[in-house]
Amino acid sequence: MVSAFFSLAPIILFCFVGLFYTNILIDIVNKIRFMDRITCPIRKWILGNVKCPKCKENLKKCNCVFSMASMMSFKVYCEKCKKYYIIETGIIDRTLKFND
Q1: Sign of the CA dihedral 52, 58, 61, 66?
Q2: In which residue ranges of the chain is pLDDT below 70?
Q3: How many whole angstroms from its chain centre is CA 75?
Q4: What are the tens digits of pLDDT across the range 9-19?
Q5: How far, in Å, CA of 47 to CA of 45, rounded?
Q6: Is residue 24 within a helix (H) or strand (E), and if so which, with residue range?
Q7: Nearest to residue 37, comparing CAs of 11, 61, 58, 63?
Q8: How crowded is the C-beta side of 4, counted as CA atoms within 13 Å?
Q9: Strands 61-65 and 73-78
């Protein structure tokens, strides 16, 4: 049993890495919206406290998006500007910043 696991582990790991690099795994995770459920308190805080960088109005929509360059990224929508913005954190910092 143990030898069967160790012989299949590299194949499973190779398939997982292949799906990750071809963005198939990212698409599956985005369809499930698993991160939206986990980050619900953060998204509610963003909608209540963050203003649009252009018109300073409240934001209407906030979704968590996957990003390879940052720890967490959120796609927000301003209804007055009719524009989407990306708010993200860096790899090691905890500050949310608008992506230019």
Answers
A1: positive
A2: 1-2, 4-5, 15-16, 18-34, 100
A3: 8
A4: 777 777 667 66
A5: 5
A6: helix 24-32
A7: 63
A8: 1
A9: antiparallel
